[in-house]
Every structure is written in structure tokens, then in C-alpha cells.
């Protein structure tokens, strides 16, 4: 375990929890959270993005990985912030609730059974054969959890078909666009921001 600094935020990394990386910082650097927003972050990991969002919003953070839930709770205490942290898959922990902003650094890498280790960390990156296994489930469920005028910010890779995500959001009535990106030698990591 080590400590990572992001501005004034101090993050303790934890065993079996996705460590903040370029995709985490892309989301944290470009948050669209306004004063008093009710915010949901899915797949919170160490809690860095949730803690950053709590500077303005009232944040609920979820993760399917119990180690990540514990890690986020510890990092919230280290940083002196109040977060509601829940364990569960996608929207299951917040059934029936609505939010102004929903954030998700998706598991976006295409992977076959040979790529996965069977470790709990696989859940942070494994997007299934086309990289869209979790992204498409998220997109199908997100409208039911957004308040009118709500916003979604999600991170994904060009390897998992950014255009398909933008089209799916448009078909659901969202105004969606790529609002930030980072190019790497084999992929582009993009942040998509969508408003209903």
C-alpha cells in the first residue's frame, strides 16, 4: 500500500482494489458537479473521484468489490469527507433513487476468458469480448436513476466503440459528446458527458 496525492486529496491504495490511473484522473480532472448536486459514482475503487466530487456534491459511491468499499470508507476518513458508500453491482444498491450526476469509470477493455485471472480486480477492467458487457448494462439502466436535467459522465476506451456509446445515448434522448480524451499507443481513453 502507498499514498497517492491528487491536489489536496490523499489516497491510500489498497490490496485487491483498482489503483488510480490515467482513466481515473481524466474523470477527476473534468468533473461536471455543481454545488448541491446529488452525485452517484459507480465503481468507486479507492474513492478518489467520489472524494473530489464531494467538494461540491452530496455523494453516494458504490462498488461491486467489497475491498473497494472498505478502501473508499478509509480514504473518506483520511480526507475528512462524508460519503455514503455501498456495496453492489451497478445500480442495485440505489434501487429507486435518482441523482443529478452519475459517474462511472467503466470496465472497458475487451477481454476473453484467457485474459481474466479470476481475481476480484478483473471486475475493474474486464469488459467482456467486445469491451461493452458492463457499459451496455449501465446505459440501459441509467435513465431510471437520473433526475430531469441530469448528467452522466463515463470513461471508456476507443477499443470498446466510443461511437456506439454516443449513438446509444443519443437514441435515448441524451445530448452526448466526448468532453476529454487521452491518446495512448494502442487506444484513446475518452470521457463522455451526456445530459438528458
The major β-sheet equals: 7 strands, mixed
- Any idea of the CATH class? Alpha Beta
Query: How much β-strand is present in the residues?
Result: 25-35%
SS content category: alpha/beta
> How much helicity do the residues have?
25-40%
Shape estimate: globular
According to CATH, the fold-level topology is: Rossmann fold
> Which CATH architecture would you pick?
3-Layer(aba) Sandwich
Q: Write down the secondary-structure element order.
A: EEHEHEHEEHHEHEE
DSSP strand count: 9
General description of the model:
Residues 24-108 form the Methyltransferase small domain. It comes from Methanothermobacter thermautotrophicus (strain ATCC 29096 / DSM 1053 / JCM 10044 / NBRC 100330 / Delta H) (Methanobacterium thermoautotrophicum). Keywords: Methyltransferase, S-adenosyl-L-methionine, Transferase. The protein contains six helices and nine strands; from the N terminus they run E-E-H-E-H-E-H-E-E-H-H-E-H-E-E. It has 196 residues and is an alpha/beta fold. It has a single domain (3-195), classed as Vaccinia Virus protein VP39 (Rossmann fold, 3-Layer(aba) Sandwich). A seven-stranded mixed sheet has the order 5-4-3-6-7-9-8, with helices on both faces. Strands 1-2 form a two-stranded antiparallel ribbon. The mean pLDDT is 91.
List keywords for this structure.
protein methyltransferase activity; globular
SSE map:
Layout: E1 3-6, E2 9-12, H1 22-29, E3 38-42, H2 48-53, E4 58-63, H3 66-78, E5 84-87, E6 99-105, H4 122-125, H5 133-141, E7 146-157, H6 162-171, E8 175-183, E9 188-195
Parallel strand pairs: 3-4, 3-6, 4-5, 6-7
Antiparallel strand pairs: 1-2, 7-9, 8-9
